[in-house]
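TICKET: design request
STATUS: open
ATTACHED STRUCTURE:
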């Protein structure tokens, strides 16, 4: 049976149309796939680009023609020697390892709204909008600035790698923006005591109430020992009364106690947005670097290896790692009547944010170490096939 809870966006039980986040991008990607399939094998301006690359020594006409004329069988047959050649490229190997460590930080993207909701006591309906606006603008600005930086000058591959490394190091201190979180309010532990013994209290539903006199937040009116209610739900001034566990004497109002730390929220959002701008400014350089660290005929395989490593070793395990870290700092779990546990209601915010910052900074610095080793191993010029028969020799 379906039970109507009459929940609104302010309710702790409110979920909303969660499926839109999967459906809309999937539909857009499906439509775009038909547009991509209509592209020719080679764009009209490709001949002029190829001519410039030949003049700069990036590739040869024979190499490009051989790549375009390969059949599916030939492409498949050459995969083993191609990947063998790529794995021998130390600059590429270090670059991919650095990217894997960098993308392990993607776990913060998955839990970002939840973390900001807890750190700054935001409503579920507001936190997504704030992060979307600030980080979305940071992404657009960062990619734009990165594109202008790369386009402004025909950088040598090794110098471009150095720029990418410096940008990552510059963005690292701004990862600490979450340390500016609101000071944690004092929460009374949800324990059965003499003052609430007459109530049947559980932690199945988190319904916080605040004693505005003592600034103590109780887990629910039940744990505060409240028996009466004055006013109407949603009307200002409504409160719980006859709360035997409260010493304030003026009743308890719905919601957590708040001390108005909106200034910290805006500063933290600005700091994290600056980090987003610098980080994504380096993404454009990163994409170009992958094109320059291998021969042109190996670029498709290098991109495939890059994406596989990023997703399989970085993006996929990242939410599991961050989820485990966050769960370790839970103070109160949701407990059902059958004794099973659900989600976490209350976190040890101070310790949690410290560990999140430690993990974030450690992963970023480790990735920069591998980027630096890639820089030291980076070729001065883009590799090219030594001869038309080079790939055939690799197969043997």
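STATUS: resolved
RESOLUTION: sequence designed for all positions
ATTACHED SEQUENCE:
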């Amino acid at each position: 049976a379906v039970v109507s809870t009459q929940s609104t966006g302010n309710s702790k039980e409110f979920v909303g149309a969660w499926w839109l986040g999967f459906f809309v991008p999937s539909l857009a990607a499906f439509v775009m796939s038909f547009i991509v399939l209509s592209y020719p094998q080679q764009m009209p301006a490709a001949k002029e680009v190829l001519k410039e690359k030949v003049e700069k020594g990036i590739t040869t006409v024979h190499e490009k023609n051989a790549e375009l004329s390969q059949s599916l069988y030939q492409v498949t047959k050459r995969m083993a020697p191609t990947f063998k050649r790529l794995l021998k490229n130390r600059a590429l190997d270090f670059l991919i390892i650095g990217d894997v460590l960098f993308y392990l930080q993607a776990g913060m993207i998955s839990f970002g709204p939840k973390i900001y909701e807890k750190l700054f006591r935001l409503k579920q309906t507001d936190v997504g909008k704030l992060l979307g606006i600030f980080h979305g603008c940071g992404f657009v600005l960062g990619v734009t600035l990165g594109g202008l930086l790369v386009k402004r000058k025909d950088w040598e591959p090794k110098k471009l790698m150095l720029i990418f490394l410096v940008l990552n190091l510059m963005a690292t201190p701004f990862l600490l923006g979450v340390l500016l979180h609101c000071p944690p309010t004092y929460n009374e532990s949800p324990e059965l005591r003499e003052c609430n013994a007459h109530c049947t209290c559980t932690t199945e539903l988190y319904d916080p109430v605040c004693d505005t006199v003592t600034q103590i937040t109780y887990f629910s009116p039940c744990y505060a020992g409240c028996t009466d209610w004055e006013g109407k739900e949603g009307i200002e001034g409504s409160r719980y009364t006859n709360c035997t566990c409260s010493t304030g004497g003026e009743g308890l109002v719905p919601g957590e106690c708040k001390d108005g730390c909106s200034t910290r929220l805006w500063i933290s959002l600005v700091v994290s947005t600056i980090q987003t701008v610098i980080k994504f400014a380096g993404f454009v350089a990163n994409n170009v670097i992958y094109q320059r660290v291998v021969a042109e005929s190996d670029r498709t395989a290098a991109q495939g290896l890059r994406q596989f490593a990023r997703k399989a070793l970085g993006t996929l395990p990242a939410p599991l790692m961050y989820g485990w870290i966050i769960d370790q700092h839970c103070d109160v779990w949701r407990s059902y009547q059958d004794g099973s546990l659900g989600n976490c209601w209350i976190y040890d915010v101070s310790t949690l944010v410290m560990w999140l910052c430690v993990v974030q900074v450690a992963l970023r610095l480790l990735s920069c170490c591998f980027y630096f080793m890639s820089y030291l191993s980076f070729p001065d010029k883009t590799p090219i096939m030594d001869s038309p028969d080079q790939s055939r020799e690799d197969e043997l």
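CLOSING REMARK: The longest strand covers residues 341-347. The two ends are 67 Å apart (CA to CA).
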